[in-house]
Design brief:
about 450 residues; three-stranded antiparallel beta sheet; 12 helices
Length: about 450
């Protein structure tokens, strides 16, 4: 076998063919990973696709474009994470039916739909470097990681809404945030232990899976002492509320209606990081002439841990080093938080529709323990009523807000203190203010 034939077979085996001896600049890609790769491997002073030159950089006239074939290798590796040849996936082919008996795409559609480039000539060159075959999603016969977790979540919602919401029997306790033990010789990333699964997960396993993702994505953040939380209360304008007893967490016998994170009868502190969002989350209808809104600030007196769903990591690029399962887990997390904060009309159905998020909240409050060992004392989540607004639920009762305990024999721990000077009465939402950073940021996969 000649060397040329061997070289052709090697290219077919790796899934792409050598392209033109051209160079491409980072501006030709709408993907941060590909653009960064080009900058790191730049060795040419002109882009052969858009015409940019090093002189366009002004004070930095260095190389601006990387070899096309080097970038093509990264693109091909990324595409084959999610896609594979239809023949290799065992898709039946029936010529009488017009081709493969499943949805497939050719190399042109694959590149146009999945490779974010801004240059048509570059798109054509990339597509021509892929084998002229039909492609389908990898592991076609089973659900992908994100799809698998979405199905499990849908099953969980159905179970806790309509079958069983109070007792989950665990054959083996797995209530910590530690991932399942790995038996493989290689050490996969934490999120590599998630989906797809062959069997539908039980409710308690779904909760643990969500807990593992939260821990792995560094969403358990430290809330420092001195953090300000805004809380609003709608009431009769004839009344004056100026104390933690009347503006903080309500007494348990006054919690008559279910909330997003808590059922009726269970009191929690609902607030926001800015007054505009606090009022919007509280005032769900137009005020009557007899009503008014009182807004007050509660300041944290000590550090505590909270889960921050308001600042999720971005879904990793297809062309990054992240595995398919890591991408699926973060993608599921975005869908989960969207479900968590979606608006629900109060028409008596909220007693049922809020159940899944209420169960998840109780899991984080009582069962979940991050690697730090400290209990989670609240959840930050995107407001359903204010774009980019951050709402929160804190697991603090009245005493934790500074209300004197009913019994002289108890000394409850106080976490929040009312700032009396901040109390304001208003008939409309306050001016929109930029909320402070949610909590100390954590990196994604350490």
């Amino acid at each position: 076998m000649g060397r040329a034939k061997e070289w052709m077979l090697e290219q077919e085996e790796r899934g792409w063919y050598e392209g033109p001896d051209s160079s491409v600049c980072p501006d030709c890609f709408d993907d941060d990973v590909l653009s960064s790769f080009v900058r790191e491997h730049a060795d040419a002073f002109e882009c052969d696709y858009c015409g940019n030159t090093s002189q366009d950089n002004g004070e930095d006239p260095g190389p601006i474009a990387a070899p096309f074939n080097a970038v093509m290798e990264v693109i091909a590796e990324g595409l084959f994470k999610e896609w594979n040849y239809a023949d290799d996936e065992g898709i039946p082919y029936e010529s009488a039916e017009g081709g493969y008996l499943a949805e497939t795409v050719d190399r042109w559609d694959l590149v146009y739909d999945w490779v974010p480039v801004s240059n048509e000539k570059l798109q054509r060159d990339i597509a021509k470097r892929l084998p002229d075959q039909q492609f389908c999603e990898r592991d076609f016969g089973s659900l992908g990681p994100a799809q698998s977790m979405a199905v499990d979540w849908e099953s969980f919602c159905h179970v806790v809404k309509h079958r069983n919401r109070f007792v989950f029997i665990r054959p083996q306790s797995r209530m910590t945030a530690s991932p399942p033990e790995q038996t493989n010789e290689a050490e996969p990333g934490v999120l590599d232990s998630f989906g797809p699964s062959e069997l539908e997960l039980a409710p308690e396993e779904i909760l643990d899976t969500i807990g593992h993702i939260v821990e792995s994505a560094s969403l358990v953040r430290r809330v420092p002492a001195g953090t300000i939380f805004k809380r609003a209360r709608v009431h009769s304008r004839k009344r004056m509320y100026r104390s933690a007893e009347t503006l903080g967490t309500p007494p348990e016998n006054k919690v008559r209606y279910p909330n997003r994170m808590s059922p009726s009868g269970i009191a929690m502190f609902y607030g926001a990081l800015d007054g505009y969002t606090a009022v919007a989350e509280t005032k769900t209808r137009r005020l009557t002439p007899e009503e008014i809104v009182t807004v007050a600030e509660f300041v944290s007196t000590k550090d505590f841990s909270a889960i921050d769903f308001s600042n999720l990591p971005r879904v990793p690029s297809l062309f990054s080093n992240s595995s398919r399962r890591e991408r699926g887990a973060i993608s599921f997390l975005h869908d989960f938080v969207q479900e968590l904060s979606k608006p629900i009309r109060r028409n008596s159905r909220e007693h049922t529709e809020y159940v899944p998020t209420q169960v998840v909240t109780e899991y984080f409050r009582y069962a979940f323990r991050p690697s730090s060992g400290e209990p989670v004392r609240g959840i930050y989540y995107p407001s359903s009523r204010v774009p980019n607004g951050v709402a929160c639920v804190l697991f603090f009762d009245r005493e934790a807000c500074g209300v004197a305990p009913e019994s002289a024999w108890t000394r409850p721990e106080q976490f929040l203190k009312l700032d009396v000077k901040s109390i304001a009465r208003m008939r409309r939402r306050p001016a929109r203010e930029k909320p402070p950073p949610p909590a100390s940021q954590g990196s994604l996969f350490s």
